[in-house]
Amino acid sequence: MKRLRVTVEGKVYDVLVEMLEEAGSPAGNPVPASTPVAAPVAAAPAAPAPAAPAAVTVHKTAGAGDIVSPLAGKVVSIDVKVGQAVDEGTQVATLEAMKMNTYVYAPRAGRVTAVVANPGDGVEEGAVLVRLG
User: Fold this and answer.
1) Domains of the chain with CATH codes
2) 28 φ, ψ to 5°?
3) Does pTM surpass 0.70?
4) Which of 73, 75, 60 is nearest to 119 (CA)?
5) What's the CA gap between 73 and 97, in Å, rounded?
6) Helix H segments across 3-113?
7) Of 111 and 11, which is predicted with more confidence?
8) Which of 19, 39, 53, 65 is the most exposed place for a label (fewest CB within 10 A)?
Protein backbone atom coordinates (compact mmCIF):
# COMPACT_ATOMS: atom_id res chain seq x y z
CA MET A 1 0.00 0.00 0.00
CA LYS A 2 1.20 3.45 -0.88
CA ARG A 3 -0.23 6.64 0.48
CA LEU A 4 -0.52 9.37 -2.15
CA ARG A 5 -1.84 12.90 -2.23
CA VAL A 6 -3.99 13.73 -5.28
CA THR A 7 -5.29 17.15 -6.29
CA VAL A 8 -8.51 17.23 -8.33
CA GLU A 9 -9.95 20.57 -9.44
CA GLY A 10 -8.02 22.35 -6.71
CA LYS A 11 -9.15 20.00 -3.91
CA VAL A 12 -6.54 17.86 -2.17
CA TYR A 13 -7.29 14.20 -1.32
CA ASP A 14 -5.14 11.69 0.56
CA VAL A 15 -5.61 8.21 -0.95
CA LEU A 16 -4.20 4.76 -0.45
CA VAL A 17 -2.98 2.90 -3.54
CA GLU A 18 -2.50 -0.83 -3.49
CA MET A 19 0.14 -2.37 -5.73
CA LEU A 20 -1.32 -5.64 -7.07
CA GLU A 21 0.71 -8.64 -8.11
CA GLU A 22 -0.22 -10.63 -11.21
CA ALA A 23 -1.72 -13.54 -9.20
CA GLY A 24 -3.76 -11.28 -6.94
CA SER A 25 -5.39 -9.18 -9.66
CA PRO A 26 -9.20 -9.03 -9.75
CA ALA A 27 -11.20 -11.18 -12.20
CA GLY A 28 -8.04 -13.00 -13.35
CA ASN A 29 -6.85 -10.04 -15.45
CA PRO A 30 -3.10 -9.74 -15.09
CA VAL A 31 -1.91 -6.36 -13.89
CA PRO A 32 1.82 -5.65 -13.89
CA ALA A 33 3.13 -5.07 -10.38
CA SER A 34 4.32 -1.62 -11.35
CA THR A 35 0.78 -0.45 -12.28
CA PRO A 36 -0.86 1.46 -9.42
CA VAL A 37 -4.55 0.71 -8.88
CA ALA A 38 -6.61 2.94 -6.62
CA ALA A 39 -7.95 1.06 -3.64
CA PRO A 40 -11.56 1.74 -2.63
CA VAL A 41 -10.87 3.98 0.35
CA ALA A 42 -12.77 6.97 1.56
CA ALA A 43 -11.48 10.22 0.09
CA ALA A 44 -11.33 13.43 2.04
CA PRO A 45 -14.84 14.80 2.41
CA ALA A 46 -15.84 17.18 -0.34
CA ALA A 47 -16.71 20.71 0.62
CA PRO A 48 -20.46 21.29 0.62
CA ALA A 49 -21.80 23.13 -2.42
CA PRO A 50 -22.71 26.74 -1.78
CA ALA A 51 -26.37 27.13 -0.99
CA ALA A 52 -28.43 28.45 -3.89
CA PRO A 53 -30.54 31.49 -3.14
CA ALA A 54 -34.09 30.58 -2.30
CA ALA A 55 -36.45 31.04 -5.23
CA VAL A 56 -39.27 33.48 -4.80
CA THR A 57 -42.57 31.83 -5.58
CA VAL A 58 -45.40 34.09 -6.58
CA HIS A 59 -48.76 32.41 -6.26
CA LYS A 60 -52.02 34.24 -5.89
CA THR A 61 -55.54 33.01 -6.39
CA ALA A 62 -56.58 33.79 -9.95
CA GLY A 63 -59.78 35.63 -10.61
CA ALA A 64 -61.63 36.83 -13.68
CA GLY A 65 -59.35 38.99 -15.80
CA ASP A 66 -56.15 37.52 -14.37
CA ILE A 67 -53.44 36.31 -16.74
CA VAL A 68 -51.78 33.29 -15.15
CA SER A 69 -48.56 31.37 -15.72
CA PRO A 70 -49.09 28.34 -17.95
CA LEU A 71 -46.17 26.53 -16.28
CA ALA A 72 -43.76 26.64 -13.36
CA GLY A 73 -40.68 28.69 -14.14
CA LYS A 74 -38.85 31.97 -13.73
CA VAL A 75 -40.21 35.32 -14.89
CA VAL A 76 -37.78 36.75 -17.46
CA SER A 77 -39.78 39.89 -18.24
CA ILE A 78 -43.12 41.58 -17.75
CA ASP A 79 -43.84 43.32 -21.04
CA VAL A 80 -46.72 45.60 -19.97
CA LYS A 81 -47.21 48.39 -17.44
CA VAL A 82 -50.09 49.29 -15.14
CA GLY A 83 -52.62 51.40 -17.05
CA GLN A 84 -51.56 50.09 -20.46
CA ALA A 85 -54.34 49.02 -22.82
CA VAL A 86 -53.75 45.60 -24.40
CA ASP A 87 -55.46 43.79 -27.24
CA GLU A 88 -56.22 40.09 -27.31
CA GLY A 89 -52.96 38.31 -28.20
CA THR A 90 -50.62 41.03 -26.89
CA GLN A 91 -47.48 39.57 -25.30
CA VAL A 92 -47.59 40.38 -21.58
CA ALA A 93 -44.76 38.29 -20.11
CA THR A 94 -41.86 35.97 -20.84
CA LEU A 95 -41.15 32.92 -18.66
CA GLU A 96 -38.16 30.59 -18.63
CA ALA A 97 -38.35 26.90 -17.79
CA MET A 98 -35.80 24.24 -18.66
CA LYS A 99 -33.67 26.78 -20.60
CA MET A 100 -36.59 27.60 -22.92
CA ASN A 101 -38.59 30.82 -23.08
CA THR A 102 -42.39 30.73 -23.09
CA TYR A 103 -44.33 33.82 -24.08
CA VAL A 104 -47.58 34.65 -22.32
CA TYR A 105 -50.28 36.50 -24.27
CA ALA A 106 -53.40 38.37 -23.19
CA PRO A 107 -56.45 36.12 -23.66
CA ARG A 108 -58.68 39.17 -24.18
CA ALA A 109 -58.51 42.93 -24.61
CA GLY A 110 -58.41 45.11 -21.50
CA ARG A 111 -56.40 47.53 -19.41
CA VAL A 112 -53.62 46.35 -17.09
CA THR A 113 -54.77 47.05 -13.52
CA ALA A 114 -51.90 45.31 -11.70
CA VAL A 115 -48.58 43.62 -12.37
CA VAL A 116 -48.31 40.86 -9.76
CA ALA A 117 -45.04 39.14 -10.75
CA ASN A 118 -41.63 40.73 -11.29
CA PRO A 119 -38.64 39.70 -13.40
CA GLY A 120 -36.58 37.12 -11.49
CA ASP A 121 -39.56 35.74 -9.55
CA GLY A 122 -40.12 32.00 -9.52
CA VAL A 123 -43.74 31.16 -10.30
CA GLU A 124 -45.88 28.07 -10.08
CA GLU A 125 -48.28 26.95 -12.77
CA GLY A 126 -51.45 29.00 -12.35
CA ALA A 127 -49.75 31.89 -10.54
CA VAL A 128 -51.15 35.32 -11.42
CA LEU A 129 -48.74 37.38 -13.53
CA VAL A 130 -50.89 40.35 -14.63
CA ARG A 131 -54.42 41.55 -13.88
CA LEU A 132 -56.66 43.02 -16.57
CA GLY A 133 -59.66 45.21 -15.88
Assistant:
1) 2-38 (no CATH), 57-132 (2.40.50.100)
2) 70, 10
3) no
4) 75
5) 5
6) none
7) 111
8) 53
